[in-house]
Amino acid sequence: MATDNTATSTSSSSSKNAFSMWKVFLPVILGVGVVVWMFLRDAHKEDLASVLGSMHFDFRSILCILLGFICMFGRDFGLTWRFRALTDRKLTWTQAWRVDMLCEFTNCITPSAVGGSSLGMVFLNSQGIEMGRATTLMLTTLFMDELFFVVACPFVILFTSSSDIFASTGTEFSHGLKYTFWTVYMLITLWTFILFTGIIWKPAWIKKTLDRISGWHWLRKWSGQISGLGDNMVATSVELRKKPFRFWLEVFWGTALAWTSRYLVVNVLFLGFIPADDHYQWIILARQFVIWVVLMVSPTPGGAGLSEWLFSEYYGDMVTTTGIALILAIFWRIITYYLYLLIGAVMVPTWLKTTIEKHHKQKEKK
Questions:
Q1: What integer is the mean pLDDT of 171-176?
Q2: pTM for the complete prediction?
Q3: Pick the residue with more confidence: 260 or 169?
Q4: H/E/C letters for each residue in the chain?
């Protein structure tokens, strides 16, 4: 019991540090800064005032913006559904949604290359899930997210020509994007295989390997975390091997719904401002897979700055002007990023207060 209390106390203090206000403002500053820079950069190429004037906010465009928010509701429903399935319905819909929002907020304020799910087990624990089981569940969500990319990307590439999926107004940009995508995709595939081996196939083998790696002189500083990862994989494997096929199917469909809904936001935005035929709609969707794979190695919080630049450059050859591409990028980020940054900033103080009060009550009972 003392160990659990210590873990809760440590996680509470680490959560407070993780949610410092400067981490909320930094991505906003980066994103706005890049947008302003791109507007100024393109000011000499075109009359941005006329670009803004050409974007008519009629019933169609407003409806499509609303559809963008509905797509993100589909994303939230998918991940909430997944948390419910993973916990065998122990979490209510409200609790599962709360965990989803907190995880997404963490993703918004941490570099994409680092990942924001590191506090996911803390969020689950605050909703009544034991810490050990919560760690198991977060490893499972990580595996399912990576598996979706590994399985879906080949299908997208197979049905999309290279000139369509990697084409851009700049040749160097196109080549750099292609090499980055395939490099990151291979790393994701390797990591997915390690996760599959560690939590399903041969957990003992992965644990032994990690124990050996943790003994390397230059990694001793992180030896505890590396060994702990091996222990968590073994524990995860014991639980997951008991799960029926229906469980895996439900979790995977929740994952697929979440990611596909997120991707479709761009399709409905194009539909509202730049109507495209079915072929172009497929290319727009296919390019979202490339964008999100590349953003996995973003060094900025939530891909702030890089996302806006990448979107406007990547979709620049599908619109009449670069200004319109940048405006679409702003709408895209508002719907898929800044909304969650705002929701998280409102939720986190209440969540921290509740978690800390619960910990103090547990100590008083003891």
A1: 82
A2: 0.85
A3: 260
A4: CHHHHHHHHHHHHHHHHHCCHHHHHHHHHHHHHHHHHHHHHHCCCCCHHHHHHHCCCCHHHHHHHHHHHHHHHHHHHHHHHHHHHHCCCCCCHHHHHHHHHHHHHHHHHCECCCCCHHHHHHHHHHCCCCHHHHHHHHHHHHHHHHHHHHHHHHHHHHCCCHHHHHCCCCHHHHHHHHHHHHHHHHHHHHHHHHHHHHHHHCHHHHHHHHHHHHCCHHHHHHHHHHHHHHHHHHHHHHHHCCCCHHHHHHHHHHHHHHHHHHHHHHHHHHHHHCCCCHHHHHHHHHHHHHHHHHHCCCCCECCCCHHHHHHHHHCHHHCCCHHHHHHHHHHHHHHHHHHHHHHHHHHHHHHHHHHHHHHHHHHHHC
